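Hi team,

Filling in the usual template for the complex we talked about on Friday. All components are listed, including any nucleic acid strands or ligand strings, so the model treats them as one assembly.

SUBMITTER: L.P.
PURPOSE: interface mapping
COMPONENTS: two
RESIDUES: 1230
SEQUENCES:
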Amino acid sequence: MPRIIFLPEKKSVQIGAEATLLDAARGAGIPINSSCGGKQKCGKCVVLIKEGIEGLPAPGPEEAALLFKKGWGPSHRLACATKVSCDLVVEAPDKGLGKERILTKAQLPFKPKKIKPVIETYRVEVPLPSLSCQADDQTRLNTALKDAFGLKGLEADPFVLRDLPKAIRRESGKVAVLVRDKGEIIKLLPGSASPPFGAAIDLGTTTVVCYLLDLKSGEELFTSSSINPQIKFGEDIISRISYCVQKPWTGLKELQKEVVDCINRLLEQVTTKIGASPGEAVEMVVVGNTAMHHLFLGLDPQHLSLAPYVPVVSDALNVKARELGINISGSAYVHLPPLKAGFLGSDAIAGLIATGLYRMKSPTLLIDLGTNGELVLGNRDKLMGCSTAAGPAFEGGHITWGMRAAPGAIERVRLESSGVTLETIGGRKPAGICGSGLISAAAELLRLGLLLPKGNFNDSSGHPNFRKGAEGIEFLISPAPDNAVGRDIVITQKDISELQMAKAAIWAGAKVLSEITGLSPRRVLLAGAGGRFIDPEDARTIGLFPFDEQTEIRPVGNAAGRGAALLLVDRGYRKRAMKMAKKMDYFELSGSRAFQDFFVQGMFFTGATDYSADF
Amino acid sequence: MPRIIFLPEKKSVQIGAEATLLDAARGAGIPINSSCGGKQKCGKCVVLIKEGIEGLPAPGPEEAALLFKKGWGPSHRLACATKVSCDLVVEAPDKGLGKERILTKAQLPFKPKKIKPVIETYRVEVPLPSLSCQADDQTRLNTALKDAFGLKGLEADPFVLRDLPKAIRRESGKVAVLVRDKGEIIKLLPGSASPPFGAAIDLGTTTVVCYLLDLKSGEELFTSSSINPQIKFGEDIISRISYCVQKPWTGLKELQKEVVDCINRLLEQVTTKIGASPGEAVEMVVVGNTAMHHLFLGLDPQHLSLAPYVPVVSDALNVKARELGINISGSAYVHLPPLKAGFLGSDAIAGLIATGLYRMKSPTLLIDLGTNGELVLGNRDKLMGCSTAAGPAFEGGHITWGMRAAPGAIERVRLESSGVTLETIGGRKPAGICGSGLISAAAELLRLGLLLPKGNFNDSSGHPNFRKGAEGIEFLISPAPDNAVGRDIVITQKDISELQMAKAAIWAGAKVLSEITGLSPRRVLLAGAGGRFIDPEDARTIGLFPFDEQTEIRPVGNAAGRGAALLLVDRGYRKRAMKMAKKMDYFELSGSRAFQDFFVQGMFFTGATDYSADF
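RESULT (copied from the run log):
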């Protein structure tokens, strides 16, 4: 007897082959709505077949017509119409399915005011041909679109043409036509289809985030994220590039496949949540640093790691998703916004879009803190970017008790007479220190005179938490009994040195940009997962930036992801991004004498001081 | 021990795994040139690995560099450098390989005077990047192309971008850039690469012909043809469409795969002949009737067989070859010229291009005789087409001893006092009668009064070849002892009726076009394999056309193939074809009262008479 497993409950039931999926669901105690009583009329019992669909016969004409009319995909079936002929894994409809879409708590704190949609839906009625009007299907469709909406010269690729004859002969010729950028028909849907959706991908070296958005309203529908599975080939960009160089025929393909599979899995997750399938998404935007961009497209990344660090391509690209193995709709595109340089990627461009820096009057500095620090300084008149190798300290790397900004990471340290007070992510028992925790600790030690501006511990202060460890003096943050790791969590002199190197890189980069442009920023925007948790006061105390107290420091969260979402839904932003990337200047820090001078000065834990250097 | 088979000789040799392919060739007595003495310097020992390449390691750097420099493909190896580590099938270099290309005796009797090439080769030198000029690879390439040739805004798809970093870093940046239609870079080759080539395909219901052409000179390099393997799904279009309708999920895919595989096989044949591989071809044109066009593209053909017979699409299309499974170069296109109607395909448009009818001053009628007769009447001022179901008689179908125009087919019949004189294709012993032979026989019988204008045999004439057969009176053409089939070859009264139906369809179609346009053609051009062998005098005698003796009848051979070749090499012709297809009128004969009247009149075996009919 076939076995049916219902998700997400994972309830399993065996049932005779003549039973329907609706019978099976009832047998398993899964509530499935069926207001028409199993007559294939209401469509409320629609389910998503997760596994085993190849064993089912094709849907009958009534079922197929209903599935099509409702805009469901090829993996959907009506539970009342589906005979259980083989083992299946089935996702039963949740609250959202078949009704309105679930809106998660917005992880993207934005909603564009007025959208110029990239994908627009035009509903027309295409007349049937006759012996006196023998115009072909495409011509009749285009004529209808021209007459009703003034659209001209629309193209359609063979995959759309393959759907065309059926699509315009159902529902008496009523059809919803999805047009991209006013130029290409990318999908034909039943006349009553709901607004289209698409996905914005923030492709980070460490984390991949997938935002599902309504392309008409710009509203966020669902979000999912995952570790970038390329991590098995190396944690940082350089080791992944080395892997490609070492395995010239296959390495790049392996890396590309990992990230494509990962995006497809995230797509499956977010679309399932709204009762849809990945094939129903009709547009995607992918932003990332230049190495991630190249690896995603299968472009040779090796020259990114060698001076003069040039990319293969910088311009925005539109690639059919099927060419990349991305499982969105057959003729849909993946849009890749422009990038600026080998180490200033489309994530930085997306960040500029999200923050609106390019239209600000006051000079502003946008920084994405990470292993590679990306900096852009400017305003509506000019923009200059640079990139600086900060090393992994801001991400918790190379730190004795360092960890990523994950639950249990110490993100804030305060010393009081009663002892050390810690805040951890998620309020869990301490498991390590993330980048913002390290900055917080250093700032607090500086404030209390326990750390000196040159970076050496002031152990002569006699503070009881100083002690001698295996590698010299260290400062106890969390004793073994209080934390999750069962050993003392400390900060070592070496950890402080790592932080000094990282902050010097940022400090010097910001200083160079400021000197060259002659702009003194009124505010610094801290972007990236790292930036979100840094206390502006702590940043100021350690002298992260070469600016005085007048300069506001403001964390802005995941600006790249937010920018990707804006670029997904709005074609105005796409044009803006292209213009901006062209107009912006880029200053190469490697080999710059001024940068080297500033770097040395930036090692000091001090606020703004007036330095000068040779350019 | 591995076994090596050398083609085309099919010589087989076994040899130890440390030996090279050059050793193996010598062992098998295959002469392979190697003027550098096996030092991987001269490249003369290049071979094409037909099978087993997956078992060979990648070429070493010296070998790879030489293969790349000479412009050879991924299936080529140097015999001197290739260790025999597994079973292989190898094509040894023939006279043409590695030298100049073999020019076959031209099967396309044309050579365009002045070409506006679709694919142009631009040779540039791309500077290496530096810290002071960090422009990306694509920008530096585009700048070089703009500076040297004024080319602007060139695009390149990700497949070209994947080759870009390597291509512009070899040969000190010297690269040959293949640009399509002045808009898109489709391939990067070494600076010294020879002119590009491409393939024109005449995709007939029965026969597929592949012409390989030099895209710079327009010269024909090689030709190959094959039976259309779709024939296993039915000899005619209608039965193939029925197959798609009966198997809605897979039928169309099966038919598409057959024809794609067939084209790939032909490509392999023609490119091997010039010592190249299919992946080196950089453009393809496919012409055919509308059903073949749709089946090739995977477009649902079912509405072509139902009134009002509308195609899915008529406009010219450019589709990346890889999207169709065609094995030409990764980013190359297949161009599909426009078509006019469900039964007036791009083959007819190609025929107009080849004959130049659209720029003639005198009214001219172009006819492609086949199961479906395609007719276009006009001149430089106007054009009107129609299509008429002639049935299979012109292709030897439904005829007692009918056969295709293949070796052994009777194509000319003369009655003399001494008896019947026959001419057969290839001068072989008679095996049957093809369309032109049937026309020739009918004409001769009419001239001698043995066949009457109404279509009945004049057996009262007492000619000794008349006799009573199983289905009434028949006329002996070739007695059993004289022919290849060992039975008497005859023409029956039924055969004559079939011919009458076929000719009436053509006669009536031509008459309708002439009446509607008010044009009386000065010449009739007979195209298609059928048309090539028809004797104009015979055509006149049976009254194939409703025109008087002033109208010249001229066979023009395979106009569709010739047109496809012109459309392959010249972008001017492509524009012309698109304009023409739009401008041309089409008259639908089905349901036309005038056509029905003329059809009845056209059954008579008489020359031009002045008839009239209601429109």
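MY TAKE: The two ends of chain B are 78 Å apart (CA to CA). Residues 493-517 of chain B form the longest helix (25 residues).

Thanks, L.
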